[in-house]
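Look over what follows to help learners.
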Amino acid sequence: MPTETTADTPAVTITKFDKALHDRSAFSCGFVPIDNFLKSSLSDQIKTGMITASIATAGDDPAVLGFYTLGAMAVRANLGAKKWQRAGIPDIPVIYIRSVAVHGTSQGMGLGTALLVDAMKRCLEITDQMGAAAITLDVLHDNHFDRRWKFYADLGFQPLEDPGNPHRVFIPMADVRVSLG
């Protein structure tokens, strides 16, 4: 998915992760656990089928500028939307965005939004194949928590109100379909 470019900057492309094509060595988003995950655990988690990953790069440069990961998850029906509670089943299928991260040099330029929109479009495609009621993610709690919380809220995410994880948010797939329709 190419994003807006200028004469000085090549188009950013978001593609499926390929260990042979994507250079993760210099990636630094400013949150060490996410940096380490990308560099050390991503390949293993993909191999075991736990997640898929999409990577943003610019032009022919293999350096990772940003990425997101998706996985399957279920949430208790008593959390989130009231209609889930009326479904009569204990767990609701959702797609879990495990991580969205942008290299420090690319932060504040719209790449995070582009990655999240790409993830939401991919989630719609997945939902058309297997069904999922929502997209969920956990807002990282660090010095930038308030900024992150606002970022996700501005995109339509709302608190799941999970007492075990107060930083988990969701957006119903119906809302995603309307906003990206």
Observations:
- DSSP finds five helices and seven strands in the chain.
- Residues 111-130 form the longest helix (20 residues).
